[in-house]
């Protein structure tokens, strides 16, 4: 039976977050190879990707996640335009890589169809369920319009993942591809002795850290919260090392792989 998979490409996986607009094209290509393989087998894939160095650094510099500030409003509005343009540029790299492999794509920048932030943002996610399996819809974390005086805010790719996975009834798998770990670890992955948690549910405590200098949307904690919400609706919710994209096929074929399964 064909699967319908929502895949999150982490911004720290497909870009170097420490350097402005630094795509990891080899990683993008390896993931797109795997996705094209899944599609060739009749599976449907929806892609959500993060911002990485195409969004977080400028958003952090001009406090875009906090909305309009009168003292820097002119600079902020210009930064909003740049980030939106840069995110479309990053998304075009993902789209081109898939098209180079014979996969048709359609891209939905959230600033065109969504407003407000968090997992209760306004926007019709059913648009991602209106394509045949050989077409891959793509969307991404973005700066969107926000009601009231804030004017703008950042809609996280993790919130998009939650809404798409929960509200599209045919979704069978939801997979977060990480850039720095095999899955959810019991302590930050760069620390000696950190171990993979193979099964995780909300409320179980793990030691994490959040690089607030590079990430303005919540890091692994937000991913875990949204994955936990998704797991109440979707049975197969996973954190997987995106540097090993072949694990996607392994998961669909064998029902398991190296990574963390999130359970309700």
Report on this model:
- This protein is α/β, with parallel strands linked by helices.
- It is 34% helix and 19% strand.
- The protein is built from eight helices and ten strands.
- An eight-stranded mixed sheet has the order 3-4-2-1-7-9-10-8, sandwiched between helices. The protein has a two-stranded antiparallel ribbon with strand order 5-6.
- α2 packs across α4 and α6 runs parallel beside α7.
- The model has no long low-confidence stretch (mean pLDDT 93).
Structure characteristics:
10 strands, two-stranded antiparallel sheet, single chain, globular, alpha/beta, 34% helix, eight-stranded mixed β-sheet, 264 residues, 8 helices
Major sheet attributes: 8 strands, mixed
Percent of sequence in beta strands: 15-25%
Write out the strand line-up for the largest beta sheet, numbering strands in chain order.
Answer: 3-4-2-1-7-9-10-8
Oligomer: single chain
CA(first)-CA(last) distance? 24 Å
Radius of gyration: 17 Å
Morphology call:
globular
Short description:
The protein is α/β, with parallel strands linked by helices and 264 residues long. It has helices at 11-14, 25-40, 56-61, 73-99, 110-113, 157-167, 219-231, 246-254; strands at residues 4-9, 44-49, 104-107, 135-140, 142-146, 151-155, 173-178, 199-201, 236-241, 260-263. It contains 8 helices and 10 strands.
């Amino acid at each position: 039976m064909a699967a319908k998979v929502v895949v999150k490409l982490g911004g720290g996986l497909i870009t170097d977050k420490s350097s402005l607009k630094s795509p990891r094209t080899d990683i993008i290509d390896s993931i797109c190879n795997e996705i094209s393989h899944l599609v060739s087998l009749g599976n449907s894939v929806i892609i959500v990707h993060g911002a990485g160095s195409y969004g977080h650094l400028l958003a952090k510099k001009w406090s875009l996640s906090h909305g309009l500030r009168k003292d820097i409003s002119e600079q902020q509005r210009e930064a909003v335009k740049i980030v939106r343009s840069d995110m479309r540029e990053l998304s075009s790299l993902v789209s081109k890589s898939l098209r180079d492999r014979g996969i048709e794509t359609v891209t939905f920048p959230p600033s065109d169809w969504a407003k407000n932030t968090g997992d209760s943002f306004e926007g019709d996610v059913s648009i991602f369920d209106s394509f045949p399996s050989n077409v891959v819809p793509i969307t991404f974390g973005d700066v969107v319009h926000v009601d009231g005086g804030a004017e703008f805010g950042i809609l996280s790719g993790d919130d998009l993942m939650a809404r798409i996975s929960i509200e599209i009834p045919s979704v069978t798998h939801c997979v977060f591809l990480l850039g720095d770990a095999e899955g959810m670890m019991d302590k930050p992955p760069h620390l000696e002795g950190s171990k993979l948690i193979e099964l995780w549910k909300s409320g179980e405590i793990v030691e994490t850290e959040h690089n607030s200098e590079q990430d303005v949307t919540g890091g692994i904690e937000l991913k875990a919260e949204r994955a936990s919400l998704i797991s109440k609706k979707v049975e197969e919710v996973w954190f997987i090392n995106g540097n090993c994209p072949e694990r996607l096929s392994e998961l669909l074929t064998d029902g398991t792989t190296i990574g963390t399964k999130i359970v309700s």
